[in-house]
């Protein structure tokens, strides 16, 4: 018989697992890893509402994508264009960024799998006499290691020609030059920290769903068990 067991700790672990997976996925797909040098203003960069010059635009560069501003001279306006600069994996700007993409993708795939499984832990708490929470926690720990490897290798690619075109001639491995880090890089770091927190917290979720109170509720014949 299936017992639906919902506890405060198990629900918090499930929500954190989903949030971490989405945060890492969004960061990976974003082009806001590096914020490049400001493009100099020209006579065409005029704000039609105020008549003054617009603020200089900072192009952004991701692992495989970029955002830049293109001008439409016939309409006297400028639009931001975002998309992948690499049509295939081999065209990613640096070998280090290719390795970063591999490690991040592996970590994110594991996190998305765990997030999907975590939704069903309310009904199924074990498989083959092994706690799903403990297995998922182990997988989250492995995913966190992949994410760390990817984030360590990423700055090593700052010396590639693509990064230099955005960050200036002083950019090199682990040196930003004229660039600054974008929100996607910080989101990836924050998601990695939360990944390890989830891995540790999975043990608390397992304890909460196998506590004496839960066993008492099961013995009383209840199918829906909700505990704080």
TrEMBL record:
Transmembrane segments: 12-35, 96-120, 132-154, 183-203
InterPro entries from the UniProt entry: LHFPL
Domain of life: Eukaryota
A single BP term in Gene Ontology: single fertilization
Membrane topology, record value: Multi-pass membrane protein
One Gene Ontology cellular component: membrane
Location(s) in or outside the cell: Membrane
Record keywords: Fertilization, Membrane, Transmembrane, Transmembrane helix
UniProt family annotation: Belongs to the LHFP family.
PANTHER family cross-referenced by the UniProt entry: LHFPL TETRASPAN SUBFAMILY MEMBER 2 PROTEIN, LIPOMA HMGIC FUSION PARTNER-LIKE PROTEIN
Protein name (database record): LHPL2 protein
Species annotation: Cephalopterus ornatus
Lineage: Eukaryota, Metazoa, Chordata, Craniata, Vertebrata
């Amino acid at each position: 018989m299936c017992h639906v067991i919902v506890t405060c700790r198990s629900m918090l672990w499930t929500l954190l697992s989903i949030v971490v997976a989405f945060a890492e996925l969004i960061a990976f797909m974003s082009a806001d890893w590096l914020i490049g040098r400001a493009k100099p203003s020209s006579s065409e960069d005029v704000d039609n509402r105020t008549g003054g010059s617009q603020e200089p635009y900072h192009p952004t560069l991701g692992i495989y994508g970029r955002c830049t501003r293109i001008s439409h001279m016939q309409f006297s306006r400028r639009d931001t264009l975002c998309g992948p600069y690499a049509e295939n994996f081999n065209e990613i700007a640096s070998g280090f960024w290719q390795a970063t993409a591999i490690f991040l993708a592996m970590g994110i795939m594991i996190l998305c799998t765990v997030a999907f499984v975590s939704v069903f832990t309310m009904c199924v708490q074990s498989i083959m006499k092994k706690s799903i929470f403990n297995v998922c926690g182990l997988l989250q720990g492995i995913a966190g290691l992949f994410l760390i490897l990817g984030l360590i290798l990423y700055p090593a690619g700052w010396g590639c020609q693509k990064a230099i075109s955005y960050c200036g001639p002083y950019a090199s491995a682990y040196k930003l030059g004229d660039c600054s880090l974008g929100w996607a890089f910080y989101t990836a770091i924050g998601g990695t920290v939360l990944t390890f927190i989830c891995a540790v917290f999975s043990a608390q979720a397992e304890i909460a769903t196998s506590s004496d109170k839960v066993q008492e509720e099961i013995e009383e014949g209840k199918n829906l068990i909700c505990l704080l």
